[in-house]
Design a protein that fits this description.
Blueprint (H helix, E strand, L loop, with lengths): L8 E5 L4 H17 L2 E8 L1 H5 L10 H24 L7 E7 L2 H11 L4 E5 L12 H10 L4 E4 L1
Parallel strand pairs: 1-2, 1-4, 2-3, 4-5
Helix pairs in contact: 4-5
Length: about 150
């Protein structure tokens, strides 16, 4: 079995919600205790946003592209704001992903050889937030590493 000392890389999905801020705080505590680094992930769930544009006449590729750019800007702002609050002693990386939150989080975890995923249990609802219960349960079910759910 592994103990906490084996944690080198901790992946933390963020969405700007209070719930995800608490997850980050937990992750920072663990990281500073065991000397692990953090990778923050923001997932732009563009599909859920685009589907709201069905009502717009002549929704062109431009709309889609503009939404993607806005979401990326929003995501980077959230990532930078979270990073700014993390002590300098903890190494932090940022990942911006577009797609379905569950699989996107797992993909980042795999790419970074994550030893632990720390995430909130809920967020701001399907459009704003990433942490719908379904996402955390998907991640728990499919992750290759331990997952800590912060309430």
């Amino acid at each position: 079995g592994s103990n906490m000392k084996d944690y080198r890389t901790i992946v933390v999905p963020v969405d700007g919600s209070d719930n995800s801020k608490r997850a980050v705080e937990h992750a920072v505590t663990i990281a500073s205790t065991v000397g692990a680094s953090l990778t923050l992930v923001y997932v732009a769930n563009i599909v859920s946003v685009i589907s709201n544009f069905d009502q717009i006449p002549n929704a062109s590729g431009y709309v889609t592209e503009q939404v993607a750019l806005d979401m990326e800007e929003e995501g980077k702002k959230i990532l930078d704001a979270v990073t700014a609050n993390i002590p300098d002693s903890v190494t932090v990386g940022e990942a911006f992903e577009v797609g379905s939150p569950g699989p996107a989080i797992l993909s980042v975890a795999k790419k970074n050889n994550a030893d632990l995923i720390v995430m909130g249990s809920r967020g701001l609802g399907p459009l704003k937030g990433l942490f719908m219960g379904s996402v955390s349960s998907f991640v728990v079910t499919h992750a290759a590493c331990p997952v800590m759910i912060v309430k």
